[in-house]
Amino acid sequence: MLLADIAEAHEAARRSLLDQRTPAGHWEGGLSASALSTATAMTALALIDPETHAHRIDQGRRWLERTQNADGGHGDTTLSFSNLSTSVLVWAAFGACGFEGRCADRSARWIEAHCGSLEPAVLAEKIAGRYGRDRTFSVPILMMAALGGRLGPVAEAWRRVMPLPFELAAVPRRYYAAVRMPVVSYALPALIAIGQARFFHAPPPPPLRWLRAAAGPRTLKLLGEIQPETGGYLEATPLTSFVAMALASSGQCDHPVVVEATRFLVASQLEDGSWPIDTNLATWTTTLAVKALGAGFSGAGAVREWLLGQQYRGRHPYTDSPPGGWAWTDLAGGVPDADDTPGALLALGELGVDERSTVAAVAGCGWLRGLQNRDGGLPTFCRGWGALPFDRSSPDLTAHTLRAWAFWQPHLPSAEAALLVKPMAAARRYLAATQAPDGSWTPLWFGNQHRQDETNPTYGTATVMAALAAGDPLRNRAAGWLQAQQNKDGGWGGGQGTPSSIEETSLALSALVPPALAGTSAADRASIIRGAQWLINRTQGGREFPPTPIGFYFAKLWYWENLYPVVWAVAALRAVEQWQQEK
């Protein structure tokens, strides 16, 4: 493969990425339509006001019918395998909206084949078993199955919905870690709303009944206080829908939270009748694009100003997070987290270090330092909750943070730089402790549906490698694992034998190429060339970028983002072109 071929593909991909900017100059991307989101939004609207929203509900039904998989089930996206959670939600939506018929029957048959029975007790056990002790998803799914008439008579159905201790939300925020919530930190609205709905339909005996009744008004007040001005909690259709349907089912259709949530759901429906999993990932996709392009693109100054403007300057009402972080979106429902914050810091570093970016970096690095868990790793939103996946440390977030700290440490004032020494050492120790014996790391945020365990060690390993210096023993072991996962066609999937994708091939190449700048073996060079050739062929020379479903939240939800294959391909082709030039 000639350098000219790589350069031509890189330039074409680069132009494609630049062409996808918004009029304001940054990137917004486009999230896939979601059967899960569509089913939950339809159900919420049907419970709130079925006559007013009849057309929107029917549009959602038609989309679900068009996109039903050949086996009768539904996956989260149109390219996803059928799964129990989404199939049950769709079946429940058909029931709640009064759409019984052929598609509902096909859904039921898929669920019955998967579970062995449609008996409510069996169904409830299977749904709860999919998520274990984490009730973040199992309880909302069971609630919706009850509302759709899929768990038996009303009184019996609600007894199958596990109660949520919504009264815990009434304790001061600083004690949330100590009370060990049964849901992850971001799901506080669901804890409150669904907990209250379950209490309304199936109240416990005294004295717990009295305690929960007393906590009701205070927690509902909190639910309103943390609702963003857009009406959508975390800008997420499923979470917002679950909150709205829970309150509506307990006779609170006119509650201000429901009114605002309805406004969000109406505004979020796509032209084809579906709903996406979230509104947009504008901040995240913009930071990915900047890191892929480098600083030398037209309009970089405007992007820099936009990114500086996305940093949170005050305490966040949702998670009580201090100032300094970034969220995934520029919309009001975003919450600062430990992936978008290092992403923003690295993008700002790419765009040039000056006094303003250094001030932002001091706050951002300090915010991440305050989030670090005792084990040295970084959780997503909240330090110390710890019991459930989103609130535990994870290698991908820790590596991303370590990479940002390593970049900014030489540029910070000496006192601030000194404060990073121990956190960086602790983060590396955490990465060493979590590296698998084969050299890989398993991430929290991304999954691969072709793997039996639905994880994506290719993403995890590539992400951690980006934070480690060439010659680091951890990186060397990881590189050996990653090279061994290359498919015969030259690309990479989520692991050896899984179908190659643009996203995973690009990530693997970006991780493997930098050490090549210092020299590689003939076998390693051949591996890189084969991977680059696969990428060029798959993208039609850097001109076409079909996305692949990718999982998040420990691979139990699936979506795709139109910009992922573009930004990661640009980054990989840029790295390979530079490597070829230096050869």
Protein topology:
Layout: H1 3-19, E1 33-34, H2 35-48, H3 54-66, H4 84-96, H5 102-115, H6 120-131, H7 135-147, H8 154-159, H9 176-179, H10 188-201, H11 208-225, H12 237-249, H13 256-268, E2 275-276, H14 282-293, H15 300-309, H16 340-350, H17 355-371, H18 395-408, H19 414-418, H20 421-434, H21 457-465, H22 473-484, H23 502-516, H24 522-538, E3 550-552, E4 557-559, H25 564-582
Antiparallel strand pairs: 1-2, 3-4
Helix pairs in contact: 1-25, 2-3, 2-4, 2-12, 4-5, 4-7, 6-7, 7-10, 7-12, 10-11, 10-12, 12-13, 14-16, 14-25, 16-17, 16-18, 17-18, 18-20, 18-21, 21-22, 21-23, 23-24, 23-25, 24-25
Task: Kindly identify the CATH topology of the largest domain.
Answer: Glycosyltransferase
Give the helix tally. Answer: 25
Tell me the overall shape: globular
**Low-confidence region ranges:** none
Task: Name the strands of the widest sheet in spatial order.
Answer: 1-2
Q: From the helix content, strand content and strand pairing, which structural class follows?
A: mainly alpha
The proportion of residues forming helix, as a percent range, comes to 40-55%
Oligomer: single chain
Beta-strand residue fraction: under 5%
Architecture per CATH nomenclature, i.e. the level-2 architecture of the largest domain: Alpha/alpha barrel
**Name of the CATH first level of the largest domain:** Mainly Alpha
Query: How many E-type strands?
Result: 4
Largest β-sheet summary: 2 strands, antiparallel
